[in-house]
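Field notebook, page 424. I keep forgetting to write these up properly, so this time I am using the form the group agreed on. The chain and the ligand, magnesium ion, are recorded exactly as supplied. Prediction of the bound pose follows.
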Amino acid sequence: MANNIQAIRGMHDVLPDQTPLWQYAEHIIRDVLGAYGYSEIRLPILEKTELFKRSIGEVTDIVEKEMYTFEDRNGDSLTLRPEGTAGCLRACLEHGLLHNQVHRLWYYGPMYRHERPQKGRYRQFIQLGVETYGMEGPDIDAELILIMERLWKRLGIRDKVRLQLNSLGTIEERLAYRETLVSYFQANITALDEDSIRRLSSNPLRILDTKNPAMQQVVSNAPALMDFLGAESLQHFNGLTTTLDSLGISYEINTRLVRGLDYYSKTVFEWVTDELGSQGTVCAGGRYDGLIGQLGGKPNFAVGFAMGIERLLALVETLDNIPVARSVDVFMIRVGEAAEREGLRFAEAIRDAVPTLKLQLNCGGGSFKSQFKKADKSGAEYAIIIGDDEASQGEVSIKPLRGVGEQQTLSQALAMDFLQKFSS
Ligand code: ATP
Ligand code: MG
């Protein structure tokens, strides 16, 4: 017999026992974004390869070695999106949404990167992306940070993450910094790994983003971009930190924070945790005013962030009590032919009267004993029991399956009243 086919390495199924946790977090995410008046945008998972090359930058980990790129049947080069910012901007430009308008958008879905799979690092992973257009900031930069802060609080993980901030200034400021940085690295070239030596001529700032522990010393002694910022960039950055200070939001300034993508300017930030090993960045983003022009649009302002949902959930899972919803509230046991018919009819009546109740019916027959086992396994809080006697009397029995309480027999009308407690 042939071997069973398995999922692609680094791409995971979310099984039914895990989906309540996902839905719980997704519900809170939608709530929080709604509270700030953000709108959802839904985007294709496939885009033309050129889009990512032009936006993310040729000399980045993503474009150099992580993209899932292939030729489609027409011979066009297509890529499974490795991130959402490029596609979101492409859509807004294509549909003329950026003309004299401001936007606050979010999207949620899978991203694809051919990385070495390990805990917190997958080849298909889910991101929440939030993008805003047309606002110069720094008030909108602060709003994004408030959204994330609120999300951590709602999920109960505020004390597990820290905010790191930096400013990347303008292109001109980065160019001046770049020269100083290159001289510094050249003077310390023996401390650089192969990748970094290659980047010295192509993209030296990215060396600061290295994950190589052996290079931490040379990176932490490097000159800081913050010292090269001009008045306008500094004013923008100070505007943001003053706002955060006034709201009591704590942050660390990390002058080595450059982010992996080329398109950022001014504000960049990451939320990091110490609880997930080396995959410690849960959420990252910043301002990318230059990207709209780079993609052929009229220059405009843009700032956003992306959050890795697997890492977010890994943090939530460290909590003791996670209030995830049950998949089944009530399980109906039906024994006997008349009871099966009457149970089905009554179940539909319950769903008419209490649409939010999650009611699962026993199907396929079985004794009371075997159906009670299934009721227990379903995770339901109550069992509704109908035998032929109950069916002929227009009654049902209700038995609590968790905690204390006796089974009681009620008229269908009273049982319906009882189940109203599941209406919300
Ligand atoms: P890292 O430094 O961990 O590689 P990154 O800078 O490449 O992250 P971004 O492109 O900024 O990540 O993506 C934003 C967020 O998406 C990350 O902070 C992380 O939470 C999540 N993320 C990125 N790559 C992966 C992956 N391969 N698997 C799971 N989550 C990921
Ligand atoms: Mg990465």
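OBSERVATIONS:
- The pocket of adenosine-5'-triphosphate (ligand 1) is lined by residues 83, 113, 115, 120-122, 125, 127, 260, 279, 281-284, 306, 308, 310-311 (CB under 6 Å).
- The chain has 15 helices and 16 strands.
FOLLOW-UP: compare against the apo run.
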